[in-house]
From TrEMBL:
Compartments (UniProt record): Nucleus
Region (Disordered): 375-396
Protein name (record): Histone deacetylase 10
Start and end residues of each Histone deacetylase domain: 32-327
A GO MF term: hydrolase activity
GO biological process: epigenetic regulation of gene expression
Any coiled-coil regions, as ranges: none
Entry keyword set: Hydrolase, Nucleus
Gene3D superfamilies associated with the record: Histone deacetylase domain
Family of the protein in this entry: Belongs to the histone deacetylase family. HD type 2 subfamily.
Length: 686
């Protein structure tokens, strides 16, 4: 049974929320400016994204809704500030750690709560599939009884509680990718097993605000909530795209798939992006497209993204746009930067895995242990980060730096963005299976004529294409592939009576066309092994039995995997091995072929197609020898992106399978560095 899924992306925004502002001078609070909202919204307009979203109006959250997580004392204090003069406002603000009141703050904070709940309602009632709320003030630091860190009411926590009560949800995932720890959210849900809270945050061994012991990796939740609070502390600044992706592959995503949420809420702070004066991290805007794309595969696509921090206006607004573009289903830009997590990131990942091992089935057989001697501890960094807001000299260099990042991003976005083809998917008109299964207009292409094909394959594989049937299918296949190579469509499906032959020809043709890194995942028996063309092709072959006489090499990896009969246990192979290798390789085209005797079920194959779309600007070519109706339908759905396919029942990997992945990881982690999720003994003490 597949649940029906809504389509469309909501955008909730009300200019009124820009009226909350700082009335006096305060070097800590002066970065939380109204322009954070207006410049994000302007940038969305600039990319024509506003008009593509479903406009959902904000409303004021009710007192009852605020009281879902806050005390009446806190509500009363907030309410009382509406009529205060500046002196009184300043005095009340002084009672909290980093907060400022304006006479309109209470109204704005209620709008921020209401905007978030409007988004939850739009998603839960099926009016839209997903969406984003641009709100101020943010929420994740605010606590039951206190404003904190620019936050008055905890918008996302209220949304979680609201969704539980109103829609009877039993499993909600909150992903907090803001660079600060959402300690407010942690406190609210730490004893609640129905809310899985994940936060990564700049920590630097408790040096960085809010400098709490309970922000460390070993705060796993309390009582019944034990195991449902995941903290990933960053002990260094400068974390980048590969560190964030590694955290998703090796910590968050396996937890999330095992948890199987009914709704995903994102505490979406972009101070974890490049140029931010608070975070001082290096992640570029497109990483948020990738993170969003991954989260869209959970909860049948029900995803609500709610703005938290983000203080470099250009970095913030570009990152907001990347998020919304992805929610709308646009192809994901190629990730930039070296794909290798840094040592400190790997150490943090290892420790959070070790701390959570008792609570999660997917971790049960991983031999991970807590690392005591962290590299950042044995070589303490010199005080490189004096408070930039109180040091006038550093404020000047900060402005300089900020302009530099702005210029960098101007160019960077031009480099990574590309025109989206008006039609996403191509297939051939006479293909019996796929064409009529595709729910939206597809690009139907004519097959290539025989002389053309013969010219193409002459010199290689010529002996394989004597049969007319194969020649005909190659004609279809090449016609679809050409549309992808010429970037007229994002992806395509071709049927083939002999997938291995089609794949060999497709790979050779793509390389000759000029594609330098082609990733090929072949599922099932592969009768001929294609030439890997000096590293221009990376082949991952998934089959049930060890193929005799074949050894794995960096560019030709064999993964023996037979999907569990009880459900889908392919998550662990995909997240723990295939995705890290694929992201390390950074392909510019992905070919996925389903041959005979496939050892994966439909749900495993759907997962493969869904998750690999983050690569190669979402350029995927599907070659199908097995054209069973349900399989074709699932693949078509994943490619067209009209809905999230059904990934089946989650089954944790057996010990044997965990060992299999571990052996492959050990074998290839020096070459494909995104595989690294623990440090070798001794490294940290060197
Ligand atoms: Zn923040």
């Amino acid at each position: 049974m597949e649940a029906a899924m809504a389509s469309g992306t909501a955008l909730v925004y009300d200019e009124e929320m820009t009226t909350h502002k700082l009335l006096w001078s305060d070097p800590v609070c002066d970065i939380e400016v109204p322009e954070r909202l207006s410049s994000s919204y302007e940038q969305l307009k600039c990319y024509n994204l506003v008009e593509r979203c479903v406009h959902v109006p904000a409303r004021e959250g009710s007192e009852e809704e605020i009281l879902l997580v806050h005390s009446s004392e806190h509500l009363e204090v907030a309410k009382s500030t509406q009529t205060m003069n500046e002196e009184e406002l300043k005095r009340v603000s002084g009672n909290y750690d980093a907060f400022f009141f304006h006479p309109n703050t209470y109204h704005c904070a209620r709008l921020a709560v209401g905007a978030t709940l409007q988004l939850v309602d739009a998603v839960m009632t099926g009016k839209v599939c997903n969406g984003m709320a641009l709100v101020r003030p943010p929420g994740h630091h605010s606590q039951k009884n206190a404003a904190n860190g620019f936050c008055l009411f905890n918008n996302v926590a209220i949304a979680g509680e609201y969704a539980k009560r109103k829609y009877g949800l039993q499993r909600i995932l909150i992903v907090d990718w803001d660079v600060h720890h959402g300690q407010g959210t942690q406190y609210i849900f730490e004893e609640d097993p129905s809310v899985l809270y994940f936060s990564w945050h700049r920590y630097e061994h408790q040096e960085f605000w809010p400098s709490l012991k309970e922000s460390d990796y070993d705060a796993v939740g309390l009582g019944r909530g034990e195991g449902f609070n995941i903290n990933l502390p960053w002990n260094k600044v400068g974390m980048g795209n590969s560190d964030y992706l590694a955290a998703f592959f090796h910590v968050l995503l396996p937890m999330a798939f095992e948890f199987d949420p009914e709704l995903v809420l994102v505490s979406s702070g972009y101070d974890s992006g490049i140029g931010d004066p608070e975070g001082q991290m290096n992640a570029t805007p497109e990483v948020f497209a990738h993170l969003t794309h991954f989260l869209m595969q959970l909860a049948n696509g029900k995803l609500c993204v709610v703005l938290e921090g983000g203080y470099h206006l250009k970095s913030l607004s570009e990152s907001v746009c990347m998020t919304v573009k992805t929610l709308l289903g646009d192809p994901v830009p190629q990730i930039t930067g070296e794909m290798a997590p840094c040592l400190s990131a790997i150490e943090s990942i290892q420790n959070v895995r070790a701390a959570h091992k008792p609570y999660w089935k997917w971790l049960a057989y991983e031999d991970t242990s807590v690392l005591q001697n962290l590299s950042t501890k044995s070589h303490p960094p010199k005080k490189a980060n004096p408070n930039p807001f109180t040091d006038p000299e550093s404020k000047i260099t900060n402005n300089d730096e900020s302009v530099k990042v702005e210029r960098f991003l101007e160019l960077h976005m031009k480099n990574i963005l590309f025109p989206v083809p008006p039609i996403k998917t191509a297939t051939t008109a006479d293909s019996k299976g796929s064409a009529h299964l595709l729910p939206v207009p597809v690009h139907l292409v004519k097959e290539m004529d025989k002389t053309e094909i013969k010219a193409l394959v002459s010199g290689f594989y010529a002996d394989l294409v004597k049969e007319d049937k194969i020649l005909h299918s190659l004609g279809n296949m090449l016609a679809v592939l050409d549309k992808i190579l010429k970037k007229e469509v994002c992806n395509g499906i071709a049927e083939s009576p002999r997938a291995a032959v089609s794949v060999a020809v497709a790979l050779r043709h793509s390389v000759q066309f000029g594609f330098q890194r082609v990733l090929c995942i072949f599922v099932g028996d592969m009768q001929i092994i294609p030439n890997i063309e000096d590293g221009k092709i990376l082949m991952i072959h998934i089959c049930e039995n060890e193929q005799s006489g074949k050894t794995s090499s960096k560019h030709c990896i064999s993964l023996n995997w037979k999907e569990d009969a009880e459900g889908n246990d392919f998550f662990s192979a995909l997240l723990g091995f295939i995705l890290p290798v694929a992201y390390s390789y950074q392909p510019n085209l992905t070919v996925i072929a389903i041959g005979p005797n496939r050892s994966l079920g439909i749900s495993g194959i759907s997962l493969l197609f869904a998750l690999l779309q983050g690569l190669a600007e979402s350029r995927i070519f599907a070659v199908m020898e097995d054209t069973e109706m349900n399989l074709m339908r699932s693949v078509a759905k994943a490619l067209v992106g009209a809905s999230t396919p059904d990934f089946g029942v989650y089954v944790p990997p057996t010990q044997e399978k965990v060992t299999k992945i571990k052996i492959l990881r050990d074998q290839f982690q020096q070459e494909w560095k995104m595989l690294q999720c623990s440090v070798k003994d001794g490294i940290s003490r060197n």
